[in-house]
Amino acid sequence: MSEPRQTALLVLEGHIIDSLILPQVMDMVMDEGGNFTVEELRVGQHKNDTSYCRIQVAASTAERLDRIVKRARELGAAVAEEAPATLEAIPKAGVFPEGFYSTSNLPTLVLLDGSWVTVERQEMDCAIAVDEKAGRAWCIAFSQAQPGMRVVVGHQGVRVMPLERSRQVELFSFMTSGVSIEKPKKRLISEIAGQMKQIRKDGGRILVVGGPAIIHTGSGRYLSRLIELGFVQVLFAGNALAAHDIEAALYGTSLGINLESGLPIESGHEHHMRAINRVRAAGSIQAMVESGQLTSGVMKAALDHGVEVVLGGSVRDDGPLPDVITDVIEAQERMRAALPDVRMALMLSTMLHSIATGNLLPAAVHTVCVDMNPAVVTKLADRGSWQSIGLVTDVDSFLRELVLALEAG
């Protein structure tokens, strides 16, 4: 006599076929040792039509079925008859209750008092805090957890909404898969420029996450031009980008290398330290600009054009500059506060800041990662920022081509 089967009824809605959500769910069920029966399938007949599928999944044990249902939720399926989310109180500051729901960067809903509520401030690797009286839910990091707050535990009453393939920007959507040095860069950069123009037209904001290679390669002038053209509203970087940018403005060098001739300058290795000292003496980068000591460069352009700048420090920093935030938790909070309305992130030649930023971004933000090292681009995707475009190329070529595309009108 065969064992009784444990079953659950799942529902999928949206562009579930061309976005491969339905076949992914089916494959997952079989990989987990279960099976499925499609009870109803309605396929959209036109490009903008959505599809609907009701699918019964079965497994030999309750534990196996729970695992299947959990993974199906992560792929965007919903349980047909859903119970409200389970909440537990935070036991002490900085600690979530055991079994808390750990978020992804995908849009998420929770079922509260019979209504599906959109989770605010969507971010991966967080818990979901809930205010039942206000009917609100939002993501919180460990550093934001305080006693008295209630968070979601388990997967009951949680619905994840996978992003569907864009129907307007086919190239952008297509290029998010895989990392290759053989991608059609000029065409792709033109497509990125078109997206940036549309974002600015719609009132959205664009974030640049930059590493010091932007300055070392002499492409700081192109980043400054992007800022002047109004295509950068937020800039995340570390001590190094700002320090070498100011070094370049004061001495014409970066890491002691003359940016015009490409030759090392005698005692040039001291220049970035002397630049840091000048800023520290002035009190801030803003003070240097106001006093007329800093007349060019990325940091001056950012200050002149109202760009929101967050400089997050690290243990290896020289100085650092007085504008650098040395408390990493404070830096994270400042970065989070700068992200509302950001629709695109350009991550340029910086592994640590790119990964840190990717962890904070919802999946709906178009992300472009540019680096000469394929491992940087791959690592960003592996960390969960699967929506990113990976371009393995030098940052100077990318920024020069991007500025040309934007200036072309």
Task: Characterize this entry briefly.
This protein is of the alpha/beta class and 409 residues long.
CATH class of the largest domain: Alpha Beta
Domains (count): 3
Strand content bin: 15-25%
Q: Can you tell me the CATH architecture of the largest domain? A: 3-Layer(aba) Sandwich
Q: Could you report the average pLDDT, rounded to the nearest whole number?
A: 89
End-to-end separation: 73 Å
Strand order, biggest sheet? 5-10-8-9-7-6-11
What structural category characterises the helix and strand content?
alpha/beta
Profile the largest sheet: 7 strands, mixed
Could you name the CATH topology of the largest domain?
Rossmann fold
The number of helical elements comes to 14
What's the gyration radius in Å? 24 Å
The residue fraction in helices comes out at 25-40%
| Low-confidence blocks of residues | 166-178
Shape verdict = elongated
Superfamily (CATH H level) name of the largest domain: putative lor/sdh protein like domains
Q: What's the β-strand tally?
A: 19
